[in-house]
Give the backbone structure.
Amino acid sequence: MKHKIRTGLLYIMAFFYLVAGVNHFIKPEFYLPLIPDYMPDAALLNIISGVAEILGAIGLLIPATRKLAAWGIILMLVAFVPSHVYFIQIGSCVPDVLCVDEWIGWVRLIVIHPVLIYWAWIYTKKENDGPKIG
């Protein structure tokens, strides 16, 4: 991937996870209903998720920790799959929080989520080892 594109995408991804992570603390009421009932201590899981996203974002920006942070983000995204499935199971709607057409829940799970995983995977490789664009 060309250096400028790769770097730009890295900063966008880090910003995305930083904002999402901070949002877990600003608006926990958004995330808590999205945590499946069968998971223990939703409040603690929300905090752990927020911290993981923030640490992932910071780790991406430090060359020495970038690869580890990218793998951590991949693992975190895999851990989020049950929440995406749960969201579909409850009709893609949490009243007063988030309601979308059910097909959007499916697109999040089978399209957007794998794209986010692939995006993080790019940074598990050295610049010359990753996918080529252009």
Remarks:
- The longest strand covers residues 93-94.
- The chain has one domain: 3-129.
- The first helix runs from residue 3 to 26.
